[in-house]
Amino acid sequence: MITDKILVIGAGGQIGLELIHALAADYGYENVVPADIRDVPGFKNFTSATFNALDAKALFETVTSHGITQIYHLAALLSATGEQQPELAWKLNMESLFHVLNLAKEGHIKKVYWPSSIAVFGPTTPRHLTPQYTVMEPSTIYGISKQAGERWCAWYHNKFNVDVRSLRYPGLIGWKTPPGGGTTDYAVHIFHEALKHKQYTCFLKSDTALPMMHMDDAIRATRMIMEAPASSVKIRGSYNVSAMSFTPAELANIITTLIPEFEISYAPDFRQAIADSWPASIDDTEARSHWGWKPSFDVKGLCQDMLKHLKPNY
Ligand code: SER
Q1: Is it true that 6-170+214-240 and 171-212+243-313 share their CATH fold?
Q2: Domain positions in the chain
Q3: What spacing in Å lies between the alpha carbon of 187 and ligand 1's midpoint?
């Protein structure tokens, strides 16, 4: 049997550090190569690679020397940091994608995963149960890069038959890895602060509803779309995927039922405008019907799971 060998670029980030272990459980640690721009302690047990995702030569050398057949390309600047470094965000998010898609086009790798985001939507998009196909006028550089990237993925698929697959992640919430540079990050920080200080000051307003998902569900959705038969993956831009939607006030109320002393206050900053431009909830009919997506965590289950796993740390 020929086993796939998988390169995960940006594996030191919030998704990557969880994904590499999920992949290793199925493919074996020897067949998963985590890569990041710097050495990451979490890569022990793996043979890892260190290179800048913008360095096409280093990427090519890693792919050929390890015999890589699949790439999960997760390196990106997210919505909040992207607004502070717009040129770098555009360069990193776009050029690194081209490097990966070109490797697939030239036949060096067989399959590509690339994440998109709810940030592809904008203030003119219908906010509630945002459909797969709708108005898309993203207002952040991150969102613009993800929207453009989706079209490039579809183009490489249509033109060169590149097997590229993608999900529009909502805010991702997990206890194993810290988030970095996103607008939805409050929904992770709140659990740490609730346990540490019984108090959290939220950078979004109390009534800002956003789509969110437990990291376990995000990893499962990622694995599902990558394992699905190619014929089931009918959308080669990116799929809406949904699990839950809540506001900071709603999340705080549930946390209070589990930690009665917990208190939340609000100090909205520049991230409020980003959140206001995004959907409140997502319709993921296509993902459900094409390849069987179904989330397992609701918001209550998410809160219980986060607090249960984080409690021993504090
Ligand atoms: N979680 C991401 C962000 O907030 C959305 O893709 O930037």
Answers
A1: no
A2: 6-170+214-240, 171-212+243-313
A3: 11
CB 142 within 8 A of CB 120: no
Integer Rg of the chain from CA = 19
User: Domain 6-170+214-240 is classified in which CATH homologous superfamily?
Assistant: NAD(P)-binding Rossmann-like Domain (3.40.50.720)
Pocket of ligand 1 (CB under 6 A): 78-79, 117-119, 142, 169, 171, 182-184
Q: Full-prediction pTM beyond 0.90?
A: yes
Q: How far is CA 94 from the centre of its chain?
A: 16
Of all atoms in ligand 1, which is nearest to the CA of residue 79? 7
Domain 171-212+243-313 has CATH 3.90.25: yes
Distance from C-alpha of 187 to C-alpha of 249, rounded to nearest angstrom:
11
Tens digit of each residue's pLDDT, the chain (314 residues): 568 999 999 999 999 999 999 999 999 999 999 999 999 999 999 999 999 999 999 999 999 999 999 999 999 999 999 999 999 999 999 999 999 999 999 999 999 999 999 999 999 999 999 999 999 999 999 999 999 999 999 999 999 999 999 999 999 999 999 998 999 999 999 999 999 999 999 999 999 999 999 999 999 999 999 999 999 999 999 999 999 999 999 999 999 999 999 999 999 999 999 999 999 999 999 999 999 999 999 999 999 999 999 999 99
Backbone angles phi, psi at 195, to 5 degrees: -80, -40
Q: How far is the CA of 171 from the centre of ligand 1 (A)?
A: 6
| Structure token digits, residue 92 | 């990193």
Residues belonging to the active site? 142
78 C-alpha vs ligand 1 centroid, how far in Å?
6
